[in-house]
Each structure stands twice: as C-alpha cells, then as structure tokens.
Design a protein that fits this description.
about 350 residues, alpha/beta, 434 Repressor (Amino-terminal Domain), Rossmann fold, six-stranded parallel beta sheet, 14 helices, 12 strands, disordered N terminus, LacI family DNA-binding transcriptional regulator
C-alpha cells in the first residue's frame, strides 16, 4: 500500500513519522545517520520512506547539521578577464570535476569592486557556504585574512607571498620561468626581455625571479630596459612589446609571463616587421589551448591548471572534514611545470 499527501504534493517528514509510528525527531535521526536509533526503528522508518517515496530536503538536512553543502569559488577579476584568460576556465573545470561526485554545490562569484567584496564578506560571515576557493590573489587582498578570522575553511590558488599562512595550491613558477629563459639563452639569444604579470601578485614576482636566475646562470647582465610589467591581458602584452622595442630595438627574445600576453606580443612584433622566431624568439607561460593555435605555435611553460583546480577542491574538502573532528588540515601543494617547445622559439 502507498500513502501520500494530496495529489501533486511531496510526502512530508510528519507523514513519514506517522506511517512508521515514531516521532518526527526519530525520522530526522534516521535520515541523518544518527547512531542512537534501534535497528527495528531504523528499519521501520526506512520502509516508510520507501513506501511514501519521501525525498529528504537537503537544505534542511544541511541546516540541521550546521552546514550548507555549498562551496564558493571566488575570482576577484572582471568578467572580461574571466572569459579571455584560459587559466580561469581550466581552474573551474578542475574544481567542477572534483566536486562532481559529491553533494557540494559550486557557487561562482566574481568580485570586481570594493562594494562587491564587502557584500561577499557579509555573505560568508553568515556562514552561508562551507568553504571558499579563492583564485587570482593580489598581495593587498584582505579576503584571505578575513576568511581565516571567521574560521571559514579556505584554499588559495597561488600565494600572496613566500610565507603564505592560508593553505594553497600553486605551481613552481620560478622553476618554470627559469626553464623558459634557459631555453632561450641556450638557443643563443642574448638580449632576452620579459613581460611580467602585475607585480603586486606573487606569481608574477616568482616568474620574474626565474627570468633573472636564468640570465645570471647564462652569464648575462640584467638590463631593466628589458623588463616591462604587464597585466596578463592580450592588449597588455601588445603594449609591453611596443615599449620593449622602443627601449631595446636589438632584443632577440621575449619571455611573457602568460600565453595571452604572448599573443599580444606576437601581434606587435609582426606589425613592427620582426619575424618570429628568426628575429625574435617568443615563449609564453600556461601552455593553454591558445599556445597551440598561434602562428607559429607558441613555446610555453605548461602548468597543470586543471589538476590545480582538482587539488584545490580536494584540499578544501579535507579542511571541511577535518574541522568536524576538531582538526585543521593546513597543508599546501606546489605542482611541477614543464617547458613545451614549439616553433616560436
């Protein structure tokens, strides 16, 4: 026999309790897997759930358990950069794939203004999510410290500094940049320039450090005329290449701290009459899809972007679970990079 409420309505917790001959609280304990329920009562409640076709309300269950079953993926960048930069889509794919087999809901949040940051701060302070994944962190970003102060489990993509206290997942940016520039000097290039990322980001500082390490290893003097700060955008790469050519018309190689900037630099080099790689060799960073579709194909430092996203999600789930037992897993992870050689260098 099947019992249900009025036509078109889902069975309620009260109806399950009445059908099983127990109280509403007992049904809740069975649904939430509590141990203090007899086998006989548990079986009766489970049979009632099956007979009635009852589907527990996940939101109510989460509230009762002190959780929300939701994770926020926060990107403090404008939507134009989100959709133009392959790095972000790779991180999102990795996070999504890791959460696919869990009950966690992923909330994508863009923070473009101080007002939006304050609104998000109020949202998380009310503990409306179980954890936060924070991408593209600048040195002066107050969000990581705020999240830590309210004991919100958080994992960063990248770091704000070398002594970052918040758990993070990063790639070995310094080694990747060093390999790129060693490749260029090993090919006989001597006036090697670089277009950095924004230098208020630790990732950009590390890639600049790798560039300088490789120059010293090759016995080349550093020339600040060969260093221009970019912004991880295509137009920024174009502007930086134009500035470099104005400062050092004899440059014979450029290492860009992202593939997107390298695309802009490539366009500017061509427009100024420079052949790539005959006159100027070019290397990017990320090994995104764009690197394979430039002409010539772009030599690039591969960072495992999707694996970084998956690792971030795993680390955050571990932090959330550890909090339930009174622990706090604060481990971080740095993934290796690999230079992928193509025709541009």
């Amino acid at each position: 026999m099947t019992v249900s409420g009025r036509r078109g309505q889902r069975p309620t917790l009260e109806q399950v309790a009445a059908y099983a001959g127990v109280g509403r609280g007992t049904v809740s304990r069975v649904i939430n897997g509590a141990a203090n329920v007899s086998d006989q009562t548990r079986t009766a409640v489970q049979q009632a759930i099956a007979e009635l076709g009852y589907v527990p309300n996940r939101a109510a269950r989460a509230l009762a358990a002190g959780s929300t079953d939701a994770i926020a993926l926060v990107i403090p960048e404008a939507e134009t950069r989100l959709f133009a930069e392959p790095y972000f889509s790779g991180i999102i794919r990795g996070v999504s794939s890791e959460l696919a087999d869990t009950d966690m809901q992923l909330l994508l949040t863009l923070i473009r203004t101080p007002k939006e940051r304050d609104r998000f701060a109020q949202y998380v302070t009310a503990h409306r999510v179980d954890g936060v994944l924070l991408v593209s962190v600048h040195a002066d970003d107050p969000l990581p410290d705020l999240l830590e102060s309210i004991e919100m489990p958080t994992v960063l993509s990248g770091r704000r500094s070398g002594d970052e206290p918040v758990p993070y997942v990063d790639c070995d940016n310094t080694a990747g940049a060093r390999a790129a520039v060693e490749h260029l000097t090993g090919r006989g290039r001597r006036a090697v320039a670089t277009v950095t990322g924004p230098l208020d980001m630790y990732v950009a500082q590390c890639r600049l450090d790798g560039y300088r390490d490789a120059l010293r290893a090759a016995g080349l003097e550093e020339d600040e005329r060969l260093v221009v700060e970019g912004d991880f955008t295509e137009e920024g790469g174009r502007r930086a290449a134009r500035e470099l050519l104005g400062r050092r018309p004899d440059l014979d190689a450029v290492f860009c701290a992202s593939d997107v900037m390298a695309v802009g630099a490539l366009a500017e080099l061509r427009e100024s009459g420079h052949r790539v790689p005959e006159d100027v060799a070019l290397v990017g960073f990320d090994d995104s899809a764009v690197a394979r579709h430039t002409e010539p194909p772009l030599t690039s430092v591969r960072q495992p972007i999707e694996e970084m996203g998956r690792s971030m999600a795993r680390a955050l789930l571990d932090r959330i679970e550890a909090r339930k037992t009174g622990r706090d897993d604060r481990s971080s992870r740095v993934l290796p990079t690999e230079l992928i050689r193509r025709a541009s260098s």
